[in-house]
Amino acid sequence: MIGVLSEEDFEVNHLCGALEVSRSAYYGWKTASPNLYEQLDQRLGPMIKDVFHQHRRRYGARRIACELQERGERCSRSKVRKIMDPMNLLAIQPKSFKPRTTQSNHRLGYNSNLLLEGIEMDRLNQVWVGDITYVALQSRFAYLALLMDLYSRKIVGWSFDENMEASLVIKSLKDAIGNRQPATGLIHHSDPGGQYAAKEYRAILSRAQMRQSMSRAGDCYDNAFMESCFGTLKTELEMATYQSYEEARREIQEYINYYNALRRHSSIDYLSPNRFETTCQT
């Protein structure tokens, strides 16, 4: 007597016929224990998801692989990507680089670009690079000035204000000097904007015995390091329009702390700036 096929049996029969495999082979596959590779994927999955959300979707497969390897988990970038794909873990994607031209029509004087001399970067506090960007608030803008150590990619000084006068960059410079106490001869590089050419700003550089360097007028690629830094910051903060100055400042300060202490940078062997600087001093 032929038994009545259930809906599941019918689907299995149809599937096995299409794939040209026996029912016994199908059920053997279905009930088999995961192999070693599958077990590894199952174990790594929660770890990958944890790292992904810990860094607020800012890490892709390469940085997650570095993080797990530091924890003693042997896995490649391709393995992490393979596990991320079915979980729909997609990192925030940076926007394409768009050149920005600084308004440099002033009569405060300019400096040549010392970085074009082919300086060999081999130590901390050798070159600092600085720039300004805008941050959208409700019905107005605020402005962020950063100074970054080019060797370690660490943000060494910053300031945030509702105007972009010379006082904005002076605050970031004083912050950096106070934090780092650099030796004489450091190269300070920026765009040729009037804020960096201001008399008071130049006086501080002179007292600290820093060598001032400026990008060529109209050539934003001369300061591409800071353009890239701002692009990363705005992408990973998913900057839109902040409700208030205080909210914007709080989020920016939190991100800078994260950027220096935790975020892995490809240019420094996927270490964080703080970690990289520690290795330089040991």
From TrEMBL:
Q: Which residues belong to any copy of the Integrase catalytic domain?
A: 119-281
Q: Which parts form a coiled-coil structure per UniProt?
A: none
Q: So which domain of life are we looking at? A: Bacteria
GO function terms (MF aspect): nucleic acid binding
Tell me a GO biological process for this protein. Answer: DNA integration
InterPro entries attached here? Answer: HTH-like_dom, Integrase_cat-core, RNaseH-like_sf, RNaseH_sf, Transpos_IS3, Transposase_IS3/IS150/IS904
Q: Know the name of this protein?
A: Integrase core domain protein
